[in-house]
Amino acid sequence: MKAIRGAIFVKEDTYEEIKKATEDLMSEVFSKNSLHDAEVVSVIFSLTKDLTSMNPATVFRKLGHDVPLMCFQEADFANSPKRVLRVLVFVERPKGSETSNVYKNGAEILKNWKW
């Protein structure tokens, strides 16, 4: 089993922006990793506390994906970045196979965030 990480900054806390960010992030996760639904074991989403207008798990389910989904509120720490949607996708892949994490809309900075 492998895990693929992803993150995207969401422009604003609206239904449409969270929907758009979820679709954009998950489309690239699937494309970049040549994923098929049969390989996906489960998906966990998290949102910073300032994103409350839409649940990304609901967006993903409405796109036709029938896998176990969860969504959590991200822990809130001093100086944490705002308006961040993160995902962790668990997939069945052979040992030694490569996967690629996806960071969009400037979320690349999260890999080296200075707290």
Set down the secondary structure blueprint.
Layout: E1 2-9, H1 15-32, E2 40-47, H2 56-62, E3 69-73, E4 84-91, E5 102-104
Parallel strand pairs: 1-5, 2-3
Antiparallel strand pairs: 1-4, 2-4
Describe the protein's architecture and organization.
This protein has 115 residues and is of the alpha/beta class. The protein has a single domain, classed as RutC-like (60s Ribosomal Protein L30, Chain: A, 2-Layer Sandwich), CATH 3.30.1330.40. The protein contains two helices and five strands, in the order βαβαβββ. The chain has helices at 15-32, 56-62, and strands at 2-9, 40-47, 69-73, 84-91, 102-104. It has a five-stranded mixed beta sheet with strand order 3-2-4-1-5, with helices on one face. β2, α2 (56-62) and β3 (69-73) form a beta-alpha-beta unit. It is globular, with a radius of gyration of 14 Å.
Task: Kindly list the characteristics that best describe this protein.
five-stranded mixed sheet, 60s Ribosomal Protein L30, Chain: A, 5 strands, single chain, alpha/beta, 115 residues, 2 helices
| Order of neighbouring strands in the sheet with most strands | 3-2-4-1-5
CATH topology: 60s Ribosomal Protein L30, Chain: A
So, the CATH homologous superfamily?
RutC-like
β-strand number: 5
Straight-line distance between termini: 31 Å
CATH architecture: 2-Layer Sandwich
Shape: globular
Write down the Rg: 14 Å
Mean pLDDT: 93
Could you spell the SSE succession in H and E letters?
EHEHEEE
Q: What profile does the largest beta sheet have?
A: 5 strands, mixed
What percentage of residues falls in helices of 4 or more residues?
10-25%
CATH domain class: Alpha Beta
Low-confidence stretches: none
Number of domains: 1
- State which percent range the strand residues make up: 25-35%
Q: Tally the helices: what do you get?
A: 2
Structural class: alpha/beta
